[in-house]
């Protein structure tokens, strides 16, 4: 997301994510943005605890991202935010992970991947990293609502996710 | 300094970030945030891609 300052770029990055998450939770998005730090910044929700979802059976979700603020040219500048890593995981009622989408380019495996965790009952895949495309937070939220039957807390969730994912796709620099 | 935004997100201070990292490291890995950060930097965490490790490692910029 672009901004005239690093702070504005971060706000423009966080706002649509917060809006997308509002489809399933009222938890605040928290971040550790420090304009004087060159390290990646953290984005998470619910004080980094898993969020209990409105579902039967009970499910939890964890959302964590890292992002960087970089200089950019044209419509994408003068400052933009780029995602540096993500961890989206869905957990059962005991907060045991069912699946986790990971992308962490500084720790092997470097490609985006899916963990199918022992809570699924499929122990064979416990240590396997199943390659995936880059996954957006909207992809995960849609999965939760449509496949895991999580009840959204706003009626316009489909419109919201379509709009926020559109913002994300317009500004991403990968395809 | 803690900042609350009308857009529904908060920016944590360094102290708040360190506390959050410490709490999650103790919860998931039974070690302090500082100990985890030290072991992570020294590459002494076995199987670092484990979900319980990654969920703490993602918080390292808060205070690692």
Characterization of the model:
The complex is a heterodimer of chains A (175) and B (64). The model of chain A has no long low-confidence stretch (mean pLDDT 90). In chain A, strands 1, 2, 3, 4, 5, 6, 7, 8 and 9 form a nine-stranded antiparallel sheet that branches. By secondary structure, chain A is an alpha+beta fold. Chain A has helices spanning 6-21, 137-146, 157-171; strands spanning 2-3, 29-31, 41-45, 51-52, 60-71, 79-91, 97-103, 113-116, 130-131. Helices cover 50% and strands 8% of the residues of chain B. Chain B has helices at residues 14-29, 33-41, 51-57, and strands spanning 3-4, 9-11. Chain B has a two-stranded antiparallel ribbon. The relative contact order of chain B is 0.20.
Summarize the structure.
Chain A has 3 helices and 9 strands, in the order βαββββββββαα.
Question: How many β strands of chain A by DSSP?
Answer: 9
Low-confidence stretches of chain B: none
Proportion of strand residues of chain B: 5-15%
Q: First CA to last CA of chain B: what distance?
A: 19 Å
Shape of chain A: globular
What is the helix/strand order of chain B? EEHHH
The helix count of chain B comes to 3
Order of strands across the biggest sheet of chain B? 1-2
Structural class of chain A: alpha+beta
Radius of gyration of chain B: 13 Å
Proportion in β-strands of chain A? 25-35%
Structural class of chain B: mainly alpha
Describe the structure using short key phrases:
heterodimer, A: 175 residues, alpha+beta, 9 strands, B: 64 residues, mainly alpha
């Amino acid at each position: 997301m672009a901004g005239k300052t690093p702070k504005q770029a971060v706000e423009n990055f966080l706002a649509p994510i917060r809006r997308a998450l509002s489809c399933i939770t009222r938890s605040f998005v928290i971040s550790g943005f420090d304009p004087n730090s060159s390290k990646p910044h953290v984005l998470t929700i619910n004080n980094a605890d898993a969020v209990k979802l409105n579902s039967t059976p009970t499910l939890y979700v964890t959302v964590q991202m890292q992002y960087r603020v970089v200089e950019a040219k044209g419509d994408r500048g003068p400052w933009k935010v780029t995602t540096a890593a993500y961890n989206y995981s869905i957990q059962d009622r005991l907060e045991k992970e069912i699946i986790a989408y990971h992308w962490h380019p500084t720790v092997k495996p470097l490609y985006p991947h899916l963990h199918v965790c022992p809570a699924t009952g499929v122990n064979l895949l416990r240590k396997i990293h199943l390659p995936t495309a880059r996954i957006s937070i909207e992809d995960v939220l849609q999965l939760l609502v449509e496949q895991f039957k999580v009840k959204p807390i706003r009626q316009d969730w489909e419109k919201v996710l379509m709009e926020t994912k559109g913002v994300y796709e317009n500004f991403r620099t990968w395809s | 300094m803690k900042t609350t935004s009308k857009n529904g997100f908060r920016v944590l201070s360094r102290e708040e970030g360190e506390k959050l990292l410490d709490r999650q490291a103790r919860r998931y890995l039974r070690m302090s945030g500082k100990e985890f950060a030290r072991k992570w930097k020294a590459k002494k965490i076995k199987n670092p891609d484990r979900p319980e490790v990654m969920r703490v490692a993602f918080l390292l910029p808060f205070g690692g």
